[in-house]
């Protein structure tokens, strides 16, 4: 009796969840996983299995790649704020007639004692800052810093934390901290104290790796500006955990 061909899965990765999904499927001989990384991080943590680095050239390019490589299922496990890539994935899946699943960690939920200000964009977040504080801990990554580079914000001081060094335009008064999570609560408390931070800006990326900063801010009574995540493209099913996504893959 012939052995069934392995299910070919393309994971659009770059997140902890994508790596854990690849790890979960790596030992399954009935599944062949390729993880695609955008290549925006200089030294990414590579998952097991096949790895592809670089863009596809839009939804048509992604659809063509999936046809060429006989992809049976597509998992969008990109960052919750990678809205353009998620739209491309949805369009490409439709073009190539490949089932698509979005793997999204749940967003953060405010707790008693939190002083959160919800915004729909980085520009909105920047507009709130002058009324909230003068020493800003900016944890939105190195992309999009131009929103905080306006002359009306020159009186503010920013501590910018990112994996790789940011490029201009950037805030006028800025210190860069190159670091990668997970972060500890003790470390976040010390960071807020040492830099005399009085307002925190973050994206609602969810997960545990960077959540301790929220607890530290709550303890210190520091306001937090939270940028809401964009919605998953309409009609795309969502898994909240790598285990749920792995179960979906194994149905093929």
Low-confidence stretches: none
In round numbers, the mean pLDDT is 94
Q: Mind describing the biggest β-sheet?
A: 6 strands, parallel
Morphology call: elongated
* Structural class assignment: alpha/beta
Task: Kindly state the number of beta strands.
Answer: 12
Give the distance, in angstroms, between the N- and C-terminal Cα atoms. 19 Å
In N-to-C order, the SSE pattern is EHEEHEHEEHEEEHEHEEH
What structural keywords apply?
12 strands, alpha/beta, single chain, six-stranded parallel sheet, 7 helices
Task: Report what the structure shows.
The chain is of the alpha/beta class. 28% of the residues lie in helices and 22% in strands. The strands form two sheets. The chain has a six-stranded parallel sheet, sandwiched between helices. Strands 6-11-10-7-8-9 form a six-stranded parallel sheet, with helices on one face. Strand 4, helix 3 (83-96) and strand 5 form a beta-alpha-beta unit. Helix 5 crosses helix 6. It is elongated. It starts with 6 loop residues before the first strand and ends with a helix.
Summarize the SSE layout with pairings:
Elements: E1 7-12, H1 16-26, E2 31-37, E3 50-53, H2 58-68, E4 73-76, H3 83-96, E5 100-103, E6 116-119, H4 122-128, E7 135-139, E8 157-162, E9 174-178, H5 185-194, E10 199-203, H6 212-220, E11 224-227, E12 238-239, H7 242-249
Parallel strand pairs: 1-2, 1-4, 2-3, 4-5, 5-12, 6-11, 7-8, 7-10, 8-9, 10-11
Helix pairs in contact: 1-7, 2-3, 5-6
């Amino acid at each position: 009796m012939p052995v069934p061909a392995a299910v070919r899965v393309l994971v659009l990765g770059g997140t902890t969840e994508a790596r854990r999904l690849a790890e979960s499927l790596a030992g399954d001989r009935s599944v062949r996983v390729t993880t695609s990384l955008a290549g925006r991080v200089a030294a990414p943590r590579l998952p097991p299995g096949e790895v592809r680095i670089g863009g596809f050239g839009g939804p048509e390019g992604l659809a063509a790649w999936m046809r060429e490589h006989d992809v049976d299922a597509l998992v969008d496990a990109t960052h919750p704020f990678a809205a353009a890539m998620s739209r491309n994935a949805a369009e490409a899946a439709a073009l190539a007639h490949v089932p698509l699943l979005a793997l999204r960690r749940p967003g953060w939920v405010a707790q008693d004692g939190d002083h959160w200000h919800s915004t729909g964009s980085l520009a909105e977040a920047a507009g709130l800052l002058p009324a909230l504080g003068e020493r800003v801990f900016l944890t939105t990554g190195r992309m999009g810093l131009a929103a905080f580079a306006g002359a009306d914000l020159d009186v503010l001081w920013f501590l910018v934390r990112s994996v790789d060094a940011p490029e201009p335009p950037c805030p006028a008064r800025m210190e860069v901290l190159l670091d990668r999570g997970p972060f500890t609560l003790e470390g976040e408390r010390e960071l807020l104290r040492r830099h005399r931070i009085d307002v925190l800006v973050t994206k609602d990326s969810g997960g545990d790796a960077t959540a301790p900063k929220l607890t530290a801010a709550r303890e210190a009574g520091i306001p937090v500006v939270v940028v809401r995540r964009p919605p998953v493209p309409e009609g795309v099913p969502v898994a909240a955990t790598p285990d749920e996504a792995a179960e979906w893959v194994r149905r093929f």
